[in-house]
Design a protein that fits this description.
Elements lengths: L8 E2 L3 H8 L4 H27 L17 E5 L9 E5 L8 H21 L11 E5 L8 E3 L4 E3 L13 H14 L8 H22 L10 E2 L14 E2 L8 E2 L3 E2 L15 H4 L5 H14 L7 H10 L9 H16 L3 H12 L6
Parallel strand pairs: 2-4, 4-6
Antiparallel strand pairs: 1-5, 2-3, 5-6, 7-8, 9-10
Helix pairs in contact: 1-2, 3-4, 4-5, 5-7, 7-10, 8-9, 9-10
Length: 352
């Protein structure tokens, strides 16, 4: 296993919050500014932890077992983590629906990793799954900080961040990447980091809903946007750039192909923006193969992520070529290989 370098990863991109922070309505601008400030503080904390070192979370005594080890905390609208423990593994559901949703989402992600890929938690060794809810005042985001997940209650633009199960799974999947390919969080490797989380977030939602690739909506964060927002989700894997188009939120900037690749210094070099390109490649592959996406396309992505052949600064081309090798190793030169080559070609990423 590679040495891990934890990073601070949020579900809502900074460029969206920047746009909201400039709104004329204080009810919109205020929460966005506070969210940006909280995120900045967490990034600083993460850098210090990376430099100084943090004690690793100890795996439970029965880490080789097939059960998750979840602990839920209530941050009580403060920004000190983790907060007050409100539910442990095996505890009965309480009155707080947010806690119950987070608990279930962690379990669903653990279940998919185990049943589809034979992996015990995100590190493969039964890592305890920790999450804090009710973080901050009107905090409009959710994040993985390298050790745990954190969910805000939202504001006038975003609803409770535990509502979409794919948001929960997306954040936990950052842990999966951290313990496997460990992509650097900048530019193309950063966009791969974000895309992998979208992929596994979508797979968990499809798994929970027992959907085939054809039945899935391929939206990330559907149900998260408040009614006043003109949009359906944070991102669309099927049609990047179409998830929202709102006077206050702005327009979804994701490209679907390399022809529209966005070069920017913001958002860590566009990690939440250019992730639309590998996202669409995965969607194209999954729908071409049909059936349950985690059995074909998901298996290829998982094998690529865990195969050990990628560098932390891998480009889209590096990743695409690695998926071709992974597909050949698992399925041979059949329909999977053909569909994969076509998918990458359609988004303009070379594999030759």
């Amino acid at each position: 296993m590679k040495a891990t370098h934890p990073v601070f990863c949020t579900i809502v991109p900074p460029h969206v919050l920047d746009k909201l922070a400039q709104a004329d309505d204080p009810a919109l601008a205020g929460p966005a500014r506070r969210t940006l400030e909280a995120d900045a503080a967490q990034r600083t904390h993460r850098r210090l932890t990376t430099v100084l070192g943090a004690p690793p979370a100890a795996p439970p005594a029965d880490a080789a077992g097939d059960k998750p080890h979840r602990t839920l905390y209530d941050a009580q609208h403060r920004q000190e983590l983790p907060g007050v423990k409100v539910r442990g593994e095996g505890d009965e559901p309480g009155q707080d629906a947010t806690v119950n949703r987070a608990y279930a989402g962690l379990g669903a992600t653990f279940d998919l990793l185990l049943k589809a890929f034979g992996r015990r938690s995100v590190d493969g060794n039964g890592l305890p799954l920790v999450a804090s809810v009710h973080y901050g005042e009107n905090y409009g985001n959710a994040f993985w900080d390298g050790r745990q997940m954190v969910f805000g209650d939202g504001d006038e633009i975003f609803r409770d961040f535990t509502l979409p199960v794919d948001v929960i799974a997306h954040e936990l999947a950052h842990g999966l990447t951290q313990y496997t390919a460990n992509f650097t969080y900048f530019g193309q490797p950063g966009a791969l980091n974000e895309s992998v989380s979208d992929v596994f977030g979508s797979l968990v939602k499809q798994y929970v809903n027992d959907q085939t690739a054809e039945q899935a909506d391929w939206l990330i964060g559907a149900g998260l946007l408040a009614e006043r927002v003109t949009g359906v989700a944070l991102r669309s894997m099927k049609a990047p750039g179409t998830a929202y188009d709102d006077d206050v939120l702005g327009k979804d900037p994701q490209p679907a192909t390399m022809a529209d690749y966005v070069r920017t210094g913001r958002d860590n070099g566009g990690v939440h923006i250019n992730s639309g390109i590998p996202n669409r490649a995965f969607y194209l592959l999954a729908t071409a193969l049909g059936g349950k996406a985690w059995e074909g396309a998901g298996q290829i992505w998982y094998d690529t992520l865990t195969g050990g052949g990628l560098q932390v600064d891998a480009s889209f081309t590096d990743f695409a070529r690695a998926t071709v090798a992974a597909a050949h190793a698992r399925f041979g030169d059949g329909e999977e290989q053909e569909a994969l080559l076509k998918a990458w070609s359609q988004v303009g990423v070379p594999t030759g």
